Amino acid sequence: MRLYDYGPSQNCFKVRLLAAHLGMALEVVPVSIFNGEGALPEFLAKNPMGTVPLLETDSGEYLPESNAILTFLAEGTPYLPCDSMPRAQVPNWHSFPLEAAARRVLLSGGQAAEAVSSPITNS
Ligand SMILES: N[C@@H](CCC(=O)N[C@@H](CS)C(=O)NCC(=O)O)C(=O)O
C-alpha cells in the first residue's frame, strides 16, 4: 500500500504511527502541500479535496481522511475491537481532538481561534 504523505503533518503522522505499530510496510510518497503539489490535477484525480494523508490500496482504491485510514488499517487487529462498546470508543476518541478544540473556541468566545490565526509579533 502507498501513503501520500507530508512529513510535518500530524494527520499523516497518525497513519505512519499505526502502520509502524502494526508492522505494516507503507510506501510513502511525499506530497509537498505548501508547494502546491496537492492542487495538481494528477493529485486531485486521486483525492478531490487535495489533502494528505491519502492511502492507495494494492488494488488501486484511494482513501483520504486520517481517521478513515486508521480504521481501515486497524480492521482485524486489536486497535479496532470487534465488541460493540470498545469498537464504538474508536470513533469517540477520533472525534475528541476536534470536539475539544471546537469547545475551547466556543468557550473563549472566539478568542482562541483569533490567537491561533494571529501573526506572532515581537512587540
Ligand atoms: N480531516 C483531514 C484533514 C486533512 C488535511 O487538512 N491535511 C492537511 C495536512 S495536515 C493538508 O493536506 N493540507 C493541504 C490543503 O488543505 O490544501 C484528515 O484528518 O486527514
How would you describe the overall organization of this protein?
The protein is α+β, with helices and mostly antiparallel strands and 123 residues long. It has two domains: 2-74, Glutaredoxin, CATH 3.40.30.10; 84-117, no CATH class. It is built from five helices and four strands, in the order βαβαββααα. Strands 2-1-3-4 form a four-stranded mixed beta sheet, covered by helices on one side. Helix 1 (10-22) runs parallel beside helix 3. The longest helix has 24 residues, at 84-107. The N and C termini lie far apart (49 Å). The mean pLDDT is 93. The structure holds glutathione (GSH). Glutathione is lined by residues 6, 9, 11, 33, 38, 50-53, 65-67.
Proportion in helices: 40-55%
Cα-based radius of gyration, to the nearest Å: 17 Å
CATH architecture of the largest domain: 3-Layer(aba) Sandwich
* Overall number of domains: 2
Beta-strand proportion? 5-15%
The description of the largest β-sheet is: 4 strands, mixed
* Shape summary: flat
The distinct ligands, each listed once, are: glutathione
What is the ordering of alpha helices and beta strands?
EHEHEEHHH
Note poorly predicted spans: none
**Alpha-beta content class:** alpha+beta
Q: What strand order characterises the main sheet?
A: 2-1-3-4
CATH top level assignment of the largest domain: Alpha Beta
Work out the helix count: 5
Name of the CATH superfamily of the largest domain: Glutaredoxin
CATH topology of the largest domain: Glutaredoxin
Mean pLDDT metric: 93
DSSP E strands, number: 4
Span between N and C termini?
Answer: 49 Å
